């Protein structure tokens, strides 16, 4: 016995000594930098990690793996430094030592260069969520906290390809963009936003105070209650709501009339305020306009009295579908942020909230009949097997409790959201992404399948299965996944989707919320899918209407459409659901699918990327009879970066999008006012030659406009608000207001003149009224504050801003401007380096502009 014990102790001692030492992750410093775009004159770039061991212990040659997320493909043969970089799946990579790796001595550094696809411009392109896993603790990921991204400053680092003519934005470029804005006095602005159909202002004011009474038709009780809550925010006293005037001296009347459903009339006299409409939604929009009339400081603190100008307003929306899309799958947003977003939408009279509830990286809605969807599909974190949660994506890191990678709305949460939205006349359209972008669902149901199969419950295990275990098809999605598509030949796939639909429908019924459509996705199904699936082959062999793999697409959406019709719902999806693949001169091409037109599918058309060839797709589909929501990437993808700058977050594959892009969009002729290609160059309008224009019939099928925020680069509420505001204002104006004069004027010079005046008024409205209001409204929004434009002229630094209403402060000593720095009031004659920042009324600042006065 003593011999055995001694042997065991010796063996244990040997194993402990042979284990590589664990190095404190805080002592591992990581820097990433771009070396050059267009590496070797190809569509690829060279970048490098530099790992520095700041500790006193050597980083061992074996026994560790580094993980990170990266949205570019890496060429594994290009990796230097004695390590390997390998894609795990999606945007998830691992870096580990080769057999001949020597480790990193204490105080030493290791440089690892590698080639990746495409190009990079800003810091959100960089690897993210870096963590290390030690071999002796394979289930534990330790975050690398000392990680920096070196700014790109040289042309070879930020010019994407030889023909890229646009450098990083400079203060001089900003100054040039701003210089043509015309001065507009704040007191000359229309004081309701979005711009109403008819607005007449008279001299004088109505004094609104806490002794106001709301006199409301019984049909408008909901709207009266919401108005009362708004007034409580201002006066800290909730006004009484009555159905008759009685002895009230000051009142807001909500009156029923016979206007079209969403129309309203607002009349403010010195004695009272009257809002008249035929429906609750019309009254609600009249209330939002009344709030727009309030002085912007009304929301900043408790008031005793506020002055409202005397106006007569007649108003109605241009489009019936005025939407905002939010992706909560890639990065999650909490319920409280959703409710805040609904308040923003309501203020600007948007009426459709398109909620992207699932994707490859997360399932965000509790479906009680299928608990695995949230038990597994709503969580991201480090795991060897992936059987309990999804892998990290978009920098969410190893911790399964990360608030951006993990999270979902419980049934109670969702019902609360629905009730809140419905009270504000906003329809919530749930999106269940299928058949691609469905990895969270596929893996959740695969875990369910494995669990029940082990229990011997084969039939129950297969009931909701979404993948064919025998499928050998090989593919890679745009986001890098090789296992993210539902197998449409599985009967269980339709059982799954019908169960999800039934549970969602029940939630809407319980909430008393309208539901007439469910969005079923349909975009970006990669080539190669289903080609080697025995089940798909069997379906093709046995079904006369399915001749090949391409036809499986129409088979799938035909079955989904039939299922929805039986439940009184209509089909809604991305543009791809309305397209059919065919041949033209022997080449693959897509045309509007005639088979689904009769069912009046509604589609979001996103692909009008200027220069890709599908610029007219929205008009093709509308002319063919599809109901089209203009969701164009060129103007309405709010996840696109504002402009080309290393420190400006967001993607840019479709365009750079500042607030002017949604504002100058002309829905019925967006060719006319397109100004830049996707790279930011002046647009060569010859790309529109031969493109299909919108017919009068097609115009009747354009049902609305949608602004979209995909969330790959959006972690948290603050970044979300930065990306959508102030772009949101351009969306609101274009969705609600009537056709602007500059949009229909045929003379180009006159159109430009009209546009410049209208743009100047819009910018003034944003700067003087809407952004200051949003500093406090609904708790305050962290909108993007633009950087000052600056140039040196006649030996002095001249400064301007995109919006009025901000305070510009500057320094001449190299320090960052603060609230104690001098205010810019006239050109600066001081020589040397001048730093400038714009501050809002709350003291929050934007990014610094730096200019040198030689």
UniProtKB/TrEMBL annotation:
The lineage of its organism: Bacteria, Pseudomonadati, Bacteroidota, Cytophagia, Cytophagales. This is beta-N-acetylhexosaminidase. Its EC number is 3.2.1.52. The keyword Repeat does not apply. It catalyses: Hydrolysis of terminal non-reducing N-acetyl-D-hexosamine residues in N-acetyl-beta-D-hexosaminides. Residues 1-18 form the signal peptide. SMART domains: CHB_HEX (SM01081). Residues 26-173 form the Chitobiase/beta-hexosaminidases N-terminal domain. Gene3D superfamilies: 2.60.40.290, Chitobiase/beta-hexosaminidase domain 2-like, Glycosidases, Immunoglobulins.
